[in-house]
Hints:
The protein is of the alpha+beta class. It contains six helices and six strands.
Amino acid sequence: MALNHRTALLAKSRLTKEYKMICAEPIDNCVIKPDPLNIFSWHFIVDGISDTLMCTTSTDKDGNKVQIPAKYYGTILFPNDYPMAPPSVFIHTPNGMIKPSESICMSMTSWHPESWHQSWGPRTVVLGLFVFLEDVYNRKESSATAIWDFKIEHVAEYAKKSKLANVKIAEFCRIFPELAEEWKKAEEGTE
């Protein structure tokens, strides 16, 4: 029992340190933070990948075309024995590629503990998720467990609705209240 408690304390200490490092050097195209009630539960929003259907195109006030990335909300759940064991990763926003709220099968997740390296952390997992999403998108298929029947037209459709989909997720609104409010107001302005 004492060993499990000590392991969890070490994991909490490591995750706290990693959050401070992310705050000092943020990840491009991503917002990530631990749940204030549970350091083992991290929440993120990653942007859709540029020059793909994970971005919608709009015209700015000067008539220039601009890309607006989809916003994919997800969670990383770290085990009590982190960093000795890998986390589970989920994307909750419907997206046309990955089943919402199902554990994603990647080499750096709990699906493949044999591939996990204890030097990896939240930053590595999110960067790996970007690579994974790009790979799934480029191949238009995957043998990974958490992939659905990939339909290219669904990716663009879901990308347009990603912010609205996120504000309907209670946990998103609790963790990112400012964004939830901003996105709700923006959606009301388009109706």
